[in-house]
Structure formats: structure tokens, C-alpha cells
Design goal:
The protein contains 15 helices and 27 strands. The protein is an alpha/beta fold and 514 residues long. It has three domains: 158 residues, ANL, N-terminal domain (Rossmann fold, 3-Layer(aba) Sandwich), CATH 3.40.50.12780; 175 residues, Rossmann fold; 96 residues, ANL, C-terminal domain (GMP Synthetase, Chain A, domain 3), CATH 3.30.300. This is Long-chain fatty acid--CoA ligase.
Length: 514
């Protein structure tokens, strides 16, 4: 049964009542209990209300993964406002755009970014208040310690309903200005329930989160932990992978959510002789296609761990997952719709496709966003009329096909597919072929302009640490495994590929590079 009528922060209050002294979040060597986080976020929420934040106001946070970010998020929701997580990697111009576009009335900011933040707020004459986290470095705004330890005041009930906005998450904006994805309390509560249901999360779980909380996949580890009552071991990043992986044994971690670039890095430490990873119960992947070669390697190295291959997008968080019992038979599939959702595939005329026909994936259900903030035209293109009168469904822009049993297979972003010599090419097929080589760590295939091909196939490849990359080997392998059209015309071996702070490869940047 879905959690109808819930407000997201009620999950935290429930766990604080049921597991008051249990660690909710561990940062470094410091454990923070559910009760501590609940009480601290009450105090910060009261302070926000005293500073003028009201129901429906937007509050941003540009903070590294930290307990302050967790508390700021819960406090914003308790105050009745809408939380906007912002990556600490964004530049001043983009930060200013997000603050101006959202009409934010408050911002939590790390003191180490004071110059960037002050440049951003000055560029838009930001009218709101800034709460600085860290050493005092600015002459304006208030300090975190002031809002956390100020005199207590009654927290006013903002009289929210589950259709009120809860989060605005800005997309990466690779093809233009970032768009704010609007999610309601009902959206997020449904998604947290659904994800924790198919992952079979239990209060005994301990989840290691190396993903940024500015990324919805990372943020959902905190939200799911609050609903279920499990502990999250929160890392600032995956910059020092061996040290991070040692914490799996130290804290008996049971769940490890990641993206392909993280799992590729983990595999560099195989066969894990110096690491204790025996407590892992499950691994989950989304954000980008999980290479079959990496799945097979992880299954061999971690036989006790269940692997969940998932697909999602910001506009509805998570869409589908492959039942782990079918992983061997359908290793390249992302499965079926998550609980309380439905998916189907349509052609360019919005007619439903049959089995094995490639088309655009459509999603319906309580997970689908309210729309894009202040973008009515883009919202109308993405949310369209469904089969039921008055219902809007999400056109994802992603190409899929479905087998006879209803399992989904990702082909690529509509924008990623290109024509080479007059025929459509999906980078996914070429990437999967190159990942078959055990010395290949990362791959990104793009189309680049070419005088005779129209668009030529170019493969960007990163070799595993200590392994030499050979363009000749790459080409010969592709010639053995792929039809001639799909053999890349160009290969570029690189030490690293450009990535977002959430670990996604920046394919648009590689396309622009040519």
C-alpha cells in the first residue's frame, strides 16, 4: 500500500520516535542519531521561520556532503519551504541563475565558497538571507551556529498538504539553461516507499553513500533511511576509493548505491584481498547504463551481493529495476516499472510500440514530477495527455525497446542517437562491445562531424590503472564483434573523461570537442 497523505519530514519524526538513539547518519567518526537530527532540524526550521521563510518559499543549499546539509534539508521542509540542493561544483553564474530563477528567499552556503557565493548573489541582487556553514568569513548573513543554538521558539505549523512542493532539483542543463524539476511531498513519499520496497530495505541495513546529496540518487539514500530507519554512512566523495571501501568492513555496510564510473573504480581493487566486503547485501546502479562486463565481474567477486540494475531520471526519480533473479538471463535489461508506476513505449506518432520496436519511453504514476519550474512550454512538451482523461504522463526523451515478457532495454538518449552513412547509430551498442575488454575502465561513444559519413563514430576510452591502452586492439576487437557500420572511425585514449559531480560522463562536452 502506498503512503498517501504523508509529508516527507514525517518519516524523520517517525524514526526519531521509534529509533531515537540509533545512528541515522555517520560522517567521519561522528554518529548522529535520528533524535538528534530531528531536534536540530526543528531548531533550524524555527530559525528559518524567524528569518521570514514561509510556506512555499524556496531555500537553496550549496554544501558538501555533511550533517549540516542533512539538517538543512529537513529544516527547510519542516518550515514549509521547498528545498533546492545545489552542487558545490557549480560556478557563480549558474548559482546566480538558480537563485534568481527559483526566487529563493534563503541559502545555506559553505564558508569555503564565500567568494563564489558572494559573486553570485551580487550579480542578481539576491534579496534573501544566507546561512553560512563553517568559519565566519562574510560580513553579511548569519552563521550556522546561530540558527542551530538560538533561543527556541515554537515551530509554526505551515499547514502543508501532500500536493505542496517539496523539492526543486535543477537538471544539468547540457542543452541549455538548467530546468528546475518540481517534486511534491506525494511524489517523493511515493518514490521513497517504492524504492525501499523493491530493494527490500530493513532497519538493520547500513548504506554507504559516496554520491553527492545534490544528486537525487544520493539524496534519496538519506530520505529512504529516514523512512525505513536504517543508517547511512555518508562520505564527502569517492576521491580516495580505498579508504572509503575500508569503511564497508568497519561499519558492516549492507548496501552500496553507485554509478558505472564508481563501480569501474571499485573493480580496480579486485580481487579485494585487503578489503572486507563480505557484509554487502546489495549493489544498485542508475544514472547511466551498467556495462554487462562490470556486472559479471562484480557477481564473481561479490557472490553474496544482489545487484539491482535500475533506470531513472530526475523528472520521476526512479523508473524501473531488473529483478535480480533475472540478471543472468537479461543482463543488459533494466527490468520493469517500479511499484505503483507504469511504463510503455511509443513511436514518433505517440502510438504504442510492439515487442522489440524501438521508441520513446513513457512513464505514468505518482512518481511523475509536477513540471518544470516556470517553464510552461517545456513542461507541455514533456508532460502530455495520457490515455486517462485529465492525466499527464512523462515523455522521457529516452529510446527503449521492450521484450515479449515486458522487460525494458535502454537504447540511448534521443539526442545521443545519430546518423552515420545514413543509418541510425546508438552509442550504447558500441560502448557495450568495448567494455568486453577487461582492461577498459570507461568508454563514451559520440558522433562527430565527418565529410563523407555525415557523423562519424568516435570512441573515448580510459584504460584501467596499470594497463596500457592500444588503439589497434580496440579497433580489432570492434571489427570482430560489430558490423562494419558500427566500428568507430576514431579512437581517443584518455587518462580520464569529463564527469559531472554525480559521476556521469559529460557526453555533450565530448561531442563539442569533436
Amino acid at each position: 500500500m502506498t503512503q498517501r497523505g504523508r509529508l516527507l519530514f514525517e518519516y524523520l519524526r517517525d524514526s526519531a520516535a521509534q529509533f531515537p538513539g540509533k545512528p541515522a547518519v555517520i560522517v567521519g567518526d561522528q554518529a548522529h542519531s535520528f533524535r538528534e537530527i530531528d531536534e536540530d532540524s526543528d531548531r533550524v526550521a524555527e530559525a528559518l521561520q524567524r528569518l521570514g521563510v514561509r510556506r512555499g518559499d524556496r531555500v537553496g543549499a550549496i554544501l558538501e556532503n555533511s550533517i549540516e546539509l542533512v539538517v538543512a534539508m529537513w529544516a527547510t521542509l519542516k518550515a514549509g519551504a521547498v528545498f533546492i540542493p545545489i552542487s558545490p561544483q557549480v560556478k557563480a553564474e549558474k548559482l546566480g541563475f538558480m537563485l534568481a530563477d527559483s526566487g529563493a528567499t534563503a541559502l545555506f552556503a559553505t564558508a569555503s565558497l564565500v567568494r563564489r557565493v558572494e559573486e553570485a548573489v551580487a550579480s542578481i541582487s539576491f534579496p534573501g538571507v544566507i546561512v553560512w556553514v563553517g568559519d565566519k568569513v562574510a560580513t553579511t548573513g548569519v552563521q550556522w551556529i546561530e540558527v542551530l543554538t538560538g533561543l527556541p521558539h515554537p515551530l509554526a505549523d505551515p499547514q502543508l498538504i501532500d500536493q505542496d512542493l517539496c523539492l526543486i532539483i535543477y537538471t544539468s542543463g547540457s542543452t541549455g539553461s538548467p530546468k528546475g524539476v518540481m517534486m511534491t511531498h506525494r511524489n517523493i513519499c511515493n518514490n521513497v516507499w517504492s524504492i525501499s520496497t523493491y530493494l527490500r530495505n530493513q532497519p538493520e541495513d547500513v548504506v554507504l553513500c559516496v554520491l553527492p546529496l545534490s544528486f537525487d540518487y544520493g539524496l534519496f539514500q538519506i530520505l529512504t533511511g529516514a523512512r525505513v530507519g536504517f543508517t547511512v554512512v555518508l562520505e564527502r566523495s569517492f576521491a580516495f576509493p580505498y579508504d572509503v571501501l575500508k569503511r564497508i568492513g568497519a561499519y558492516r555496510v549492507t548496501g552500496l548505491p553507485g554509478v558505472p564510473t564508481i563501480f569501474a573504480k571499485i573493480l580496480e581493487f579486485a580481487p579485494f584481498d585487503r578489503l572486507d566486503l563480505t557484509s554487502l547485501r546489495y549493489l544498485s546502479n542508475t544514472a547511466a547504463a551498467f556495462p554487462a562486463a562490470h556486472i559479471r565481474a562484480l557477481r564473481t567477486l561479490l557472490p553474496q551481493a544482489t545487484i539491482f540494475s535500475m533506470y531513472g531520471l530526475t523528472e520521476c526519480t526512479r523508473v524501473s529495476y531488473l529483478d535480480p533473479s533475472r540478471l543472468d538471463a537479461k543482463i543488459t535489461s533494466v527490468g520493469r516499472a517500479m511499484p505503483n508506476s507504469e511504463t510503455y513505449i511509443v513511436d514518433e506518432h505517440a502510438r504504442r510500440c510492439g515487442p522489440r520496436e524501438i521508441g520513446e519511453l513513457v512513464v505514468r504514476g505518482a512518481s511523475v514530477m509536477r513540471g518544470y519550474w516556470r517553464r510552461p512550454e517545456e513542461t507541455a512538451r514533456t508532460l502530455r495527455d495520457g490515455d486517462i482523461a485529465g492525466e499527464k504522463v512523462l515523455f522521457t526523451g529516452d529510446l527503449f525497446w521492450m521484450d515479449e515478457e515486458g522487460d525494458l532495454y535502454f537504447v540511448g538518449r534521443r539526442d545521443d542517437v545519430f546518423k552515420c552513412r545514413g543509418e541510425k547509430v546508438s552509442p550504447r551498442e558500441v560502448e557495450a562491445c568495448l567494455y568486453e575488454l577487461d582492461w577498459v575502465a570507461e568508454v563514451s561513444v559520440v558522433g562527430v562531424p565527418h565529410p563523407s559519413d555525415g557523423m562519424a563514430i568516435k570512441a573515448h576510452v580510459v584504460a584501467r590503472a596499470g594497463r596500457a591502452a592500444s588503439e589497434d586492439q580496440l579497433r580489432k576487437h570492434c571489427m570482430r564483434r560489430l558490423e562494419p557500420l558500427l566500428v568507430p572511425r576514431f579512437f581517443e585514449v584518455a587518462e580520464a573523461l569529463p564527469k559531472t559531480d554525480s559521476g556521469k560522463i559529460k557526453t555533450a562536452e565530448l561531442r563539442r570537442k569533436g
